[in-house]
Design brief:
Number of strands of chain A: 16
Low-confidence stretches of chain A: none
Radius of gyration of chain B: 19 Å
Strand order of the largest sheet of chain B: 2-1-3-4-5
CATH topology of the largest domain in chain B: Rossmann fold
Helix content of chain B: 25-40%
CATH architecture of the largest domain in chain B: 3-Layer(aba) Sandwich
Radius of gyration of chain A: 22 Å
Largest sheet of chain A: 8 strands, mixed
Order of helices and strands of chain B: EHHEEHEHHEHHHHHHH
Mean pLDDT of chain B: 95
Oligomer: heterodimer
Order of helices and strands of chain A: EHEEEEHEEEHHEHEEHEHHHHEEEEHHH
Strand order of the largest sheet of chain A: 3-2-8-9-10-11-1-12
CATH class of the largest domain in chain B: Alpha Beta
Number of strands of chain B: 5
Number of domains of chain A: 2
Mean pLDDT of chain A: 96
Number of helices of chain B: 12
Largest interface: A-B, 46 and 45 residues
Shape of chain A: globular
Strand content of chain B: 5-15%
CATH superfamily of the largest domain in chain B: NADH:ubiquinone oxidoreductase-like, 20kDa subunit
Low-confidence stretches of chain B: none
Distance between the termini of chain B: 58 Å
Structural class of chain B: alpha/beta
Distance between the termini of chain A: 48 Å
């Protein structure tokens, strides 16, 4: 990482412009229908200026801040996954020809630059890199990932469902970015300390006009991050958790969660690391044109585990157990990392507020029943 | 192979679902090319007797005459598909199942003695075996095209039975329940509409009926915890799919408490 530099808002605008000029489609947090989601950025005024979010289990509300902070909120329902692993994508299409069958190549995806990616989201991208690129290269993800430019923003104000400190993924980004910013709003003083994590990131900072940070500025940013680490809305005790869960497959608590669980799949769809999809082949009515479409799927869906004779995870208890033990235990065996990054989305966006940290704690606290 | 013969029949319903077939516009010609429309009074005066390869049945069973007619249609059909909330769940008119229908007829008709009707409005599958059900009020025309397509190519139709939430998330709609506090039936309702209502800041009305594993009690208890009263809750559950078992049972529980 380069020594701390600093940008003001105009500098950040220049940074966005420079990314556009390089041919990136620049995405960042934007306000839409009562939530902050990833949308197109032409300048910093497209960001949720002066907004914050209040998050609790099954509750998300936007509120006005009393300053003009550009990044004064945490993560919304969407993550970079929505673009890197699209919800719906045509894998290939083809047409009957006189000779047989001709396949059309899939459309070339845009080159994305994300501005305002949070440390937990960087961690989630690193997890999906292992999933999609670790063994075999997934072409859909790979083509979108390779051109990606990431401008991260550290979290100085964790939300009510955040627990990245517990998962070791935040609130400050360590790697996986091209540029990382920390926003400081101190009365009239409003600036972003900046560091490059790659050569192209360093070039971009030069182009945006970043200057060397004053000692006080770097110190102020570091202080905010240190304080943030102690202000997480949630925590998850990960000590021996994977082993604990591996041994808790018959724990009565799964049945207790199943009474509340809607099996609606929201937790998996908002999760930035969940990667499951379904592949459907279709033809048009004439049978001349065929298409293979990949869509997000979920282990909470009945058909997901449907085999001859029925689904092998018929009960909601089995489905919740599968999801949670996969995230917190089996993921280590499969991908060598946790499947949970502590972003809190599954807690906020569960329509009935099921809290993975509370369910894990309930199992830990009642180990003796096994 | 000869073109499959299509028959379209209706019982107690508004005709909206069979109109979805005519609403296919660009695909309509392709459909008409692929199947022989043998009986479809909304579309054509032609009437060719059965048996039919594909029969679409709209509407619920509400009269003694319906009871006989549906058996004859079943006998005349190879592959019988019920379409829409009326045919698959009894429809909005199944609200009569909680009331006294004789009392209704005495208010509505000058000569109620001419009216021959059943006590209840019930789904077609209560009376005959049904090969497939297309849900919705109305059905989604793309699902109808998919069904015809699957039949033509002898494959299983891709008609999902998971929740509406999956469609909201795929299209990028932020949850209206979580972000705006709007009560929504999406988590217990089957997908198929492409989650239209939440995309316009409305809660789901449950038009496609219960999803594959609906936990209506859990959702209802959450609504109550955020201040929805039991009367509102019962009214929400007693919509177009009121008589579908999971909605019916939960609505009965909360109606007693309301």
């Amino acid at each position: 990482m380069t020594p701390a530099q600093v940008l003001d808002r105009a500098g950040l605008d220049r940074l966005i412009e420079a990314l556009s000029a390089r041919g990136y489609r620049v995405l960042g947090p934007t306000v839409s229908d009562g939530a902050i989601v990833y949308g197109d950025l032409a300048s910093t005024s497209d960001l949720p200026v002066g907004w914050t979010d209040r998050q609790e289990p099954a509750q998300y509300r936007l509120e006005r801040r009393d300053d003009e902070a550009l990044f004064g909120y945490v993560v919304g329902p969407q993550s970079p996954k929505t673009r890197l692993h699209p919800a719906e994508v045509v894998v290939w299409s083809g047409e009957k020809t006189a000779q047989g069958f001709a396949m059309a190549p899939p459309a070339e995806p845009p080159r994305y630059a994300f501005v305002g990616v949070r440390p937990c989201e960087l961690a989630a991208i690193a997890v999906q890199d292992r999933v999609f690129l670790g063994h075999e290269r997934d072409a859909v993800y790979g083509r979108r990932r390779e051109g990606l430019f990431l401008v991260a923003v550290n979290c100085t104000e964790p939300g009510g469902t955040c627990f990245c400190s517990s998962m070791g993924t935040g609130p400050a980004a360590v790697d996986g970015f091209d540029v990382v910013l920390t926003e400081v709003v101190d009365g009239r003083d409003h600036y972003f300390t900046a560091a490059a994590g790659s050569e192209r990131g360093a070039e971009l900072l030069v182009e945006a006009g970043a200057t060397e940070a004053k000692k006080g500025q770097a110190k102020a940013a570091a202080g905010l991050l240190e304080a943030a680490a102690g202000r997480m809305g949630r925590s998850l005790d990960t000590t021996g958790l994977a082993d604990l869960l591996r041994q808790a497959l018959e724990h009565p608590h799964w049945q207790e969660v199943a009474k509340r669980c809607l099996t609606c799949a929201n937790c998996t769809l908002v999760c930035p690391t969940c990667f499951c999809s379904n592949v459907e082949d279709t033809t048009d009515l004439s049978g001349r044109r065929a298409e293979r479409v990949r869509r997000w799927d979920s282990c909470f869906n009945f058909e997901f585990s449907l085999i001859h004779g029925g689904p092998h995870r018929a009960s909601p208890a089995a489905r919740y157990r599968q999801w949670m033990t996969h995230k917190l235990a089996w993921w280590f065996d499969q991908f060598g990392t946790s499947g949970c990054v502590g972003c809190g989305r599954c807690i906020t966006w569960c329509p009935v507020g099921i809290d993975i940290t509370a369910e894990a704690a309930a199992i830990r606290d009642n180990r003796e029943v096994l | 192979m000869a073109k499959p013969k299509l028959g379209v029949f209706k019982f107690a319903s508004c005709d909206g679902c069979q109109l979805s077939l005519l609403d296919c516009e660009d695909e309509l010609l392709a459909v008409a090319d692929a199947v022989h429309i043998a009986f479809f009074p909304e579309a054509s005066r032609e009437y060719i007797e059965g048996p039919y390869d594909l029969t679409l049945v709209e509407g619920s069973i509400t009269t003694p005459h319906d009871l006989e007619a549906i058996k004859k249609i079943r006998a005349d059909s190879k592959f019988l598909v019920t379409i829409g909330a009326c045919a698959t769940a009894g429809g909005i008119q199944a609200l009569r199942n909680w009331k006294d229908v004789t009392e209704f007829t005495s208010y509505v008709y000058a000569h109620p003695e001419y009216i021959s009707t059943l006590e209840t409005s019930t789904p077609v599958s209560d009376h005959i075996p049904v090969d497939f059900e297309l849900r919705g009020c109305p059905i989604n025309k793309w699902q109808l095209v998919e069904l015809v397509n699957a039949l033509l190519h002898a494959r299983k139709p891709n008609i999902p039975t998971y929740s509406v939430c999956v469609e909201c998330k795929r299209r990028g709609t932020s949850c209206v329940m979580v972000a705006q506090g709007i009560p929504c039936l999406g988590p217990v309702t089957q997908a198929g509409c492409d989650a239209i209502c939440p995309a316009y800041d409305r809660g789901c009305y449950g038009c496609f009926g219960p999803m594959e594993s609906p936990n209506v009690t859990a959702l209802a208890e959450w609504w109550r915890s955020v201040g929805v009263d039991d009367r509102t809750l019962v009214n929400a559950l007693r919509g177009f799919n009121a008589y579908a078992e999971p909605f019916r049972e939960a609505s009965d529980v909360y109606a007693q408490q309301a």
